[in-house]
């Protein structure tokens, strides 16, 4: 195992196919380069148990010191927004997640998502008709023309953020998504600075909307978060801002990759695409298998240990930084038979694609619904779709991984 494997994971030249690197990594389930760098965990059962371990923290303030990270990852110190619940531990995490759940729908019952089904269908049809009216079916970019605008419109609608402001927060969202990647070559003092500024600007933008909604509430989540007063009391303005920023970014930068990775995988497996075309209900197992096989969130680089912990025979000291490589756990042959095979008929599919434990994806019902609908409609409506570039050009990001463009052609749109 080379000492540089962490750099290789981040290196763009491996973006299109990082899976051979993960296979190499799994030979050492807990890898540490010995220089005070992160402990990288790549096997399914170890990742799963750490995600459920209360001795593991998501709060960046528990890392021994940002400067200890040889890859130069810095923290969010100095931001004007407090950390969102993604980066908090209990009890604050639990309180804020509970309070956010209330307007979104009761726990484990995605009724708000069901209410939105008609609307989601309308958005999907509108975008596919938009592609048809361009008249150019020889070169369609499924990212720019479909997979990006769809989830962005949905999260804007849900939160009550004006869709026409998208060009403004697009830049902040991209900066924040990119900042999740550890940067081996960045100056530790500078790395993360762009993200701090982007977060502050996004916070100020949302503060204006929250003020408006307090005066004149609508049926959107921003209004509900800003005005709700339940058993846990109400959120402070700062909590409303960091929660809505989290939802906006999470709803923005992840589902696009699930839809795009999904179409790419289906175009590489035409027999599955044909089955989906004939039976839209197959989108349910297809999306689960995609979350295992090509997960949009490849790794979680933000955890730390609150005390000394032993994992797979390795002792992690208190304050150690952890990378949990979800995409590698999903391909662990000790957990999944033929893990490198895309197989929507797989019966046993407890993947790590949406995380696990107390931080498991809050937007999971929405993400699943969006991807199921998007893929089944694209399969049904595009006649004889073909990939024009394989592999397609990828986004820079290693953590939130997916194609930047997905050029395809088709004969007609029905
Ligand atoms: C958490 C994946 C879509 C909101 C997570 C986590 C993963 C994930 C892996 C765990 C993070 C951790 O443990 O540190 C995904 C994927 C998506 C998706 C693959 C799309 C395919 C969404 C959407 C929303 C959302 C649409 C918002 C509506 C959140 C939030 C958390 C989270 C708020 C933090 C939960 C917590 O800390 O308790 N997501 N997500 N996600 N996700 Fe998603």
Automatic annotation (TrEMBL):
Residues 61-91 are annotated as: Disordered. SUPFAM superfamilies: Cytochrome P450 (SSF48264). Residues 61-76 have a biased composition (Basic and acidic residues). InterPro entries: Cyt_P450, Cyt_P450_B, Cyt_P450_sf. Keywords: Heme, Iron, Metal-binding, Monooxygenase, Oxidoreductase. It holds the Pfam family p450. GO terms for molecular function: heme binding; iron ion binding; monooxygenase activity; oxidoreductase activity, acting on paired donors, with incorporation or reduction of molecular oxygen. Belongs to the cytochrome P450 family. This is Cytochrome.
């Amino acid at each position: 195992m080379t000492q540089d494997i962490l750099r290789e994971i981040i290196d763009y030249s491996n973006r299109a196919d990082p899976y051979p690197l993960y296979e190499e990594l799994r030979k050492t389930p807990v890898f540490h380069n010995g220089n005070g760098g992160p402990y990288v965990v790549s096997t399914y059962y170890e990742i799963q148990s750490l995600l459920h371990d209360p001795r593991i923290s998501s709060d960046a303030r528990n890392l021994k010191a940002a400067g200890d990270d040889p890859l130069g990852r810095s923290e969010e110190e100095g931001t004007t927004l407090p950390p969102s619940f993604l980066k908090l531990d209990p009890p604050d995490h639990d309180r804020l997640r509970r309070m956010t759940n209330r307007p979104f729908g009761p726990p484990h019952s995605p009724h708000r998502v069901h209410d939105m089904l008609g609307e989601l269908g309308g958005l999907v049809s509108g975008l596919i008709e938009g592609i048809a009216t361009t008249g150019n079916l020889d070169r369609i970019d499924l990212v720019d023309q479909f997979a990006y605008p769809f989830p962005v419109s949905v999260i804007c609608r849900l939160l009550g953020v004006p869709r026409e402001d998208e060009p403004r927060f697009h830049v902040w969202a991209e900066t924040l998504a990119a900042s999740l990647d550890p940067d081996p070559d960045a100056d530790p003092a500078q790395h993360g600075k762009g993200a701090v500024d982007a977060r502050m600007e996004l916070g100020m933008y949302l503060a204006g909307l929250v003020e408006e909604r307090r005066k004149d509430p609508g049926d959107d989540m921003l209004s509900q978060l800003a005005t709700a007063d339940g058993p846990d009391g109400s959120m402070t303005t700062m909590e409303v801002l960091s929660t809505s920023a989290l939802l906006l970014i999470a709803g923005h930068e992840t589902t696009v990759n699930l839809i795009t990775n999904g179409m790419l995988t289906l175009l590489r497996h035409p027999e599955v695409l044909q089955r989906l075309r004939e039976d839209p209900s197959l989108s349910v197992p297809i999306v689960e298998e995609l979350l295992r096989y090509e997960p949009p969130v490849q790794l979680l680089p933000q955890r730390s240990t609150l005390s000394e912990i032993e994992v797979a025979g390795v002792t992690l000291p208190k304050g150690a930084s952890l990378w949990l490589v979800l995409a590698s756990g999903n391909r662990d042959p000790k957990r999944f038979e033929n893990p490198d095979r895309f197989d929507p008929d797989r019966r046993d599919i407890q993947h790590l694609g949406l995380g696990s434990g107390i931080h498991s994806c809050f937007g999971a019902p929405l993400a699943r619904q969006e991807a199921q609908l998007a893929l089944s409609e694209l399969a049904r409506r595009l006649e004889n779709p073909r990939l024009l570039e394989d592999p397609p050009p990828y986004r820079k990001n290693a953590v939130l991984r997916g194609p930047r463009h997905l050029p395809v052609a088709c004969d007609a749109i029905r």
